[in-house]
Specification:
By secondary structure, the chain is mostly helical. It has one domain. Helix 1 runs antiparallel to helix 2. It is globular, with a radius of gyration of 19 Å.
């Protein structure tokens, strides 16, 4: 799934929590840390984006390693355990990272950045639906729009119901 859809889904899922923006930021960073530098290099070289970024040249090894690291549930479970030990409580915004990875597993095919969610234990990945398929992109953003409409509607109705209730 694209980075903006991840941010929108994370905000929608955790919209009621004070820490939601940390979760959104972490969900965004899972991809931005990996793809941001190469996109910056392409832009600085005067290039344009046409399809998926190519994985070759000097970036290939570090890029693949970084992608494996940021998209591994195993790695993030270790991070969560360490943070829990340090903070003496679970840091809830990490759920944004877990949501990102759980969304990526079924929405990445073997042909386009399969999600190495069990790395470094295994390199096995699930071949799901490509999030970049036009029909899926339309379904995804249509679903996001519907979810936000429902959240907004519930928020407005909740405030309106409270106003009428007080007046009665």
């Amino acid at each position: 799934m694209d980075v903006f859809a991840h941010a929108l889904w994370t905000q929608a899922v955790f919209h009621k929590y004070r820490w939601k923006w940390w979760a959104v930021l972490l969900s965004f960073l899972v991809d931005a840390v990996v793809f941001g530098p190469i996109m910056l290099v392409i832009l600085l070289q005067g290039g344009a984006f046409h399809g998926p970024p190519a994985i070759h040249g000097g970036f290939a090894a570090s890029w693949a390693y970084l992608y494996n690291f940021t998209h591994s549930l195993v790695v993030w479970l270790v991070v969560a355990a360490l943070l829990t030990l340090i903070l003496r409580r679970f840091w809830w915004p990490l759920l944004g990272v877990f949501l990102h990875i759980l969304i990526d597993i079924p929405t990445h095919s073997q042909a386009y950045f399969p999600t190495p969610f069990l790395w470094p234990l295994t390199s096995w990945t699930f071949s799901g639906i490509s999030w970049a398929a036009p029909w899926f992109m339309a379904l995804n953003y249509g679903s996001i729009a519907l979810v936000y409409l429902l959240i907004y509607r519930k928020a407005i109705l909740g405030r309106t119901k409270g106003l009428f209730h007080r007046a009665a």
